[in-house]
Design goal:
The chain has about 270 residues and is an alpha+beta fold. It folds into 2 domains: about 140 residues, Ubiquitin-like (UB roll) (Roll); about 120 residues, PH-domain like (Roll), CATH 2.30.29.30. Helices cover about 35% and strands about 30% of the residues. The strands form 3 sheets. Strands 2-1-5-3-4 form a 5-stranded mixed sheet. Strand 3 and strand 4 form a beta hairpin. The longest helix has 27 residues. Keywords: Cell junction. This is Jg21774 protein. It comes from Pararge aegeria aegeria. One of its GO terms (biological process) is actomyosin structure organization. InterPro entries: Band_41_domain (IPR019749), FERM_domain (IPR000299), FERM_N (IPR018979), FERM_PH-like_C (IPR018980), PH-like_dom_sf (IPR011993), Ubiquitin-like_domsf (IPR029071).
Length: about 270
């Protein structure tokens, strides 16, 4: 009887290990933590666990990066099972800010603001960050042209190397680090891609009679799709955030509406 119980306990332990995945998370301080999750867990489940460890309440602004085919800046799909995203354990990810609020003071949670500060410092300095991130630092950082922008290298219609920077305010076109043009979300009517070509359809201005189409070429169709998804996610996130603030101005954070936001983003990107 005892032997049977020991065998049963051993089998249960083996089953638990087989059903669990081990994730190694690099934090913004440079430290690493290990998180165990169920194999059927999604990217959102993992992000929630990491934010819980860090006491970050406003988790909607953050995301997880992983390496895919040599590209170190691929966002973990929050709606997809981790077991379908990763293969060999441990699964390695980096915790970082994904959506940078145009006004850092909008973050009411100290830990969320602290983590955002670390992310901004890392983006600017690409080195080890100090232990504290002051709100004043963020207030100065937001004035920089590339604050909170996710930059993608593209070629314009003349085959010139330029960059498209996606952020809370819209999409900027930069060359040699200098911003040449800015397109706020209200100016952009449609964002699309086909194979390697990414296209913006812009609203006609008071001086233009017709809409404008701008096309950019990326290194691959995968890179084109990644830029398209980044653009759609940012547009949806901040549009929904503004609507939530308008409806519920007294809310100090948007965590309660997280599922609605993710659902809208994923549906728009064609993942629902």
């Amino acid at each position: 009887m005892r032997e049977s119980l020991r065998r049963l306990a051993s089998d249960d332990g083996m089953t638990a290990r087989l059903n669990a995945g081990r994730v190694r998370v690099e934090l913004l301080t440079g430290e690493h933590i290990t998180v165990d999750v169920e194999r059927k867990a999604t990217g959102a489940d993992l992000l929630d666990k990491v934010c819980e460890v860090l006491d970050v309440i406003e988790s909607d602004y953050f995301g997880l990066l992983h390496v895919q085919r040599g590209d170190p800046r691929v966002w973990v799909d929050l709606g997809r099972r981790l077991s379908k995203t990763f293969r060999n354990e441990p699964w390695d990810v980096k915790f970082t800010a994904k959506f940078y609020p145009p006004e850092p003071s909008e973050l009411r949670d100290d830990q969320s603001r602290y983590q955002l500060g670390l992310s901004v410092r890392r983006d600017l300095m690409e080195g080890q960050t100090p232990a504290e991130a002051e709100l004043n630092y963020l207030e100065n950082a937001k004035k920089l042209a590339m604050y909170g922008a996710e930059v993608h290298n593209v070629k314009d219609s003349d085959d010139v190397d330029i960059s498209l920077a996606v952020c809370a305010a819209g999409i900027s076109v930069a060359r040699d680090g200098l911003v040449m043009n800015r397109f706020p979300w209200t100016k952009i009517l449609k964002i699309s891609y086909h194979k390697r070509v990414y296209t913006l359809r812009l609203r006609a201005s008071e001086f233009d009679e017709y809409e404008t189409h701008l096309s950019f070429k990326l290194p691959s169709s995968r890179a084109s799709k990644r830029l398209w998804r980044c653009s759609v996610e940012h547009h949806m996130f901040f549009r929904i955030l503004l609507e939530l603030v308008r409806i519920q101005p007294a809310k100090t954070h948007i965590r309660a509406s997280k599922l609605d936001i993710l659902s809208n983003i994923l549906e728009t990107c064609g993942y629902n």
